[in-house]
Amino acid sequence: MISNFIVLVIFFGVLALWLYIGYDTKVKPHIDRRAQARMPFGWENILLRKVSFYTQLSSNDKVRFEQDVIQFLSQVKITGVRCEVNLEDRLLIASSGVIPLFGFPACTYKHLKEVILYPSSFNRRFQLNDPDEQITGLVGTGTMYGKMILSKPALHEGFNIGSDKQNVGIHEFIHLFDMENGFIDGVPPGFEEKAFALPWLQFVHTKIKEIADEESDIRVYGSTSAIEFFAVVGEYFFERPDLLKRKHPALYKALVKTFNQDTAEFLSDNFTIEDIGRNDPCLCGSGLKYKLCCWVD
Description:
mainly alpha, Cyclin A, domain 1, four-stranded mixed sheet, 6% strand, globular, aminopeptidase activity, metallopeptidase activity, SEC_C_motif, Peptidase
């Protein structure tokens, strides 16, 4: 039996090699941003109020995020089942997809055609409000290939509460990111080669054991499998990056390379839109006071 110490040594060694030689992500480029325009009026206000990731970006990166959102909505159909799909729903779904890929300019998801929004949780037979099985997000396979299902209330809750390290939209899109190498297996794109995959999976096994032994603050659902571990720690990486970096430095370093983003450098764990005063400079970069620009009473 390999000790945890040896596992960590192997993982750090392989990670160092991987960081040195780099890797080519399997996500395929489809976007020509030079042809993109700014978002329609009113969209920016919703993003500023609801998406803290967007709110904390620089002015130039906000423009890039907006263009990614526009491109996503032009390529992916969004359908409501027994619920209305409004503009805020569409922007939160698009943001959920843009965030994990933001470190890879001009890239999108090749395995997604449609996002289906449900009015509540659902079960494996896609029936609503089953008290025995409450699924809030699902990436389709088989006859549902190319589709994603999200619970509308859970989607909004993921953006309303940032301190819980959970965001079902981001979680499901990380599964799609995982699928870029052909299947969902919990091995991040770039780790497919055996020399990288085996140390990663052994490292994941060690972290899952820590969760099972109640020696970790990573959400218990992450101990279900390597697949769910990757999605759960991905949520953590985008929701509470400072905390993840402090408590799990090796994992944080691996995720920085995986997503090509150093989220702790520009995201604050404690940031909320309520922290912005009416007389502070508006976060959209206009130069106006917040109350005169994007503030909504």
